[in-house]
Amino acid sequence: MKSNIYSVLVFLLGVACSYLISLHLTEKEKIQQQQNIQLESKSIAFNILNSIESNAEQIQLLISHWISIDDLNSHWKTDTNLLINRNRFINTIKLFPLVDDSLFDLPPKTLIKADSEIEKRRQLRAREHLPKNANQVISNFVYTTRASYLPDNNIELKLQFPIVIDRQLIAYVEVPMKLGMLLKHKLDTYQITKPFAISENGTVLFNYLPEKLHINNITKETTIHVFGHTWKLMVWSNIVHQEKGLFLILSLLVSLLAAIAVKLGMLNLDLYKKDLKNKNLIRKVDDECKSSQAKLIQSNKLASLGEIAAGIAHEINQPLQVICIHTDICQENIKKGNYHLIEKSFKAITAQSERIENIVKQVGSFGRDSELDNYQKEEPNRIFNNVISIVINQYKQDQVELRQVIPSSLPLLFCNKTQIEQVLVNLLINAKDSVETSERKVVFFKAHAQDHKLYIQVSDSGTGIDPTKVNDIFTPFYTTKPLGKGTGLGLSISYSIIHQHQGHIKVSSEIGHGSVFTVILPFDKPKKHINESI
Fold first, then answer.
1. Are 233 and 41 in contact (CB under 8 A)?
2. Which of 98, 187, 226, 423 is the most exposed place for a label (fewest CB within 10 A)?
3. Contact 502, 345 (CB under 8 A)
4. Please, are residues 221 and 233 in contact by the beta-carbon 8 Å criterion?
5. pLDDT confidence of residue 263
6. 71-80, 238-247, 317-326: which has the highest mean pLDDT?
């Protein structure tokens, strides 16, 4: 009897020691990684800003040589060709005139001209941030537009340099710099080795994130001020925990516990044989209990079908709001005579009406099979853009930050586009609601391709879900939100949609640390596709 008590005490002591040692080593290594990533983020920010400023200085030096319009006309071609040949990140240099075009004698397509009055107004509107007279120009100041994507998915940062001759602002030199190529060059030459992402006003400009890197790893956010624009630099730690010493300690403890367990097993062999029959009986009763419980859960889901109608108003409220907004827009455009803008609003109204129709069909067919339709190859990025455009206003209103880690291109996904959008909207709205009372209001939206499947992850920094209630969140009308905040219908429908697409939806959560919802979908059409259940 004493040997059993001692064995249990040693086992508990070993578990406690293993836990404390693991906790100490992990915390120590985490602090070290936080210090390293803080230094690395400063280094990367300086590297990027210094490279952009160096390119700007080269161009500014070129412009400072032109002391008259004749001088500019004479040396433009030679000077700009020399700069383009030396700088791999610049392909073209153009001039936006503020005086009579006839004063400039430059190569074809160098001057930025307007073929019509409408085009001229558009050009001026795109450059309304630029001073229009010499008194407003700051000496040697560089102006920029927001970074933008080119058709080839490269990122372009347009630098704009004022030319002041005889105290008159005559033009701006515009130099599109290939920012994406510059950043890739720094990665290829190992000037930057840490995973990072750059965003402006919530829009991701560039990211270098290995697919298997978890977005909740140790990170550091840094602000970069680039010629009047503010960029956010997010740097991730990619250092793997060094656990060799911990493994050795755990191995010794496991060996010790195994020896004790053998002795304990020998001492209790007779008792084990006597209890074997009782254990088998208990196991049989337990299996029957679990089977009955599963049947009760399924019966409960089917019984919920009669109550689904109560949640239709909640599900279609958002598209109805969009329809109302576009109806008001149509009325305003009719009054103002902007008939060319009405078509866009009608298309939006039609799309939202179809969406309401689909939601009603989905609710009506919940829990049963139907014929496959509306499935086709879709671009995941287009789906993501539609979803983000739906929820972004709510995020801004509630002052919640949405961080996106999405590759620029993904394989085509065989799916029902409307249904997948509905799932992602539900997950993003739930994530937003969960961080409303948090100090750090951040939601992560990440996607990547792996093993012929699309992985979509929505995580938040909210309050988390009680572990005892995680298995209940996909049950219709179950909700952890306050009364009147939600119906509990969204996750149950999302679960059925993903199941219909032969995918999986997983959830992990920790009280006080937020939740992570992961949706896994096959890219290709399954050989044997289940009929729609939503």
1. yes
2. 187
3. no
4. yes
5. 64
6. 71-80
Which phi and psi angles does 407 have, rounded to 5°? -60, 155
Measured at the CA of 152, the angle between CA 150 and CA 157, to 5 degrees, comes to: 30
- Helix and strand totals (H; E) in the chain: 11, 16
Residue 413 pLDDT more than 90? yes
Cα dist from 339 to 41, 326, 344, whole Å: 50, 14, 10
pLDDT single digits (tens) 80-106: 999 999 888 998 999 999 888 889 999
Measured distance CA(222)–CA(45) in Å, rounded: 7
Compute the C-alpha angle 231/237/238, nearest 5°.
125
Q: Is pLDDT above 70 for 339?
A: yes
Residues whose CB falls within 8 Å of the CB of residue 301, separated by 6 or more in sequence, listed in order: 367, 475, 476, 492
- Bridge partners (DSSP) listed for residue 149: 155
Q: Quick one: which H or E segment has residue 447? A: strand 442-450
What is the chain's alpha carbon radius of gyration, rounded to the nearest angstrom?
31
Whether the Cβ atoms of residue 76 and residue 171 lie closer than 8 Å to each other: no
340 DSSP assignment = G
φ, ψ at 473 (rounded to 5°): -70, -20
User: Is it the case that residue 14 has pLDDT exceeding 80?
Assistant: no
Question: Tokens at residue 110, please?
Answer: 């160098």
Amino acid at 25: L
Closest alpha carbon to 433 in 384, 474, 484: 484
Pick from 64-73, 232-241, 411-420: least confident: 232-241
172 pLDDT more than 80 = yes
* Amino acid (one-letter) located at 368: R
Token pair listed for 141 = 């100041």
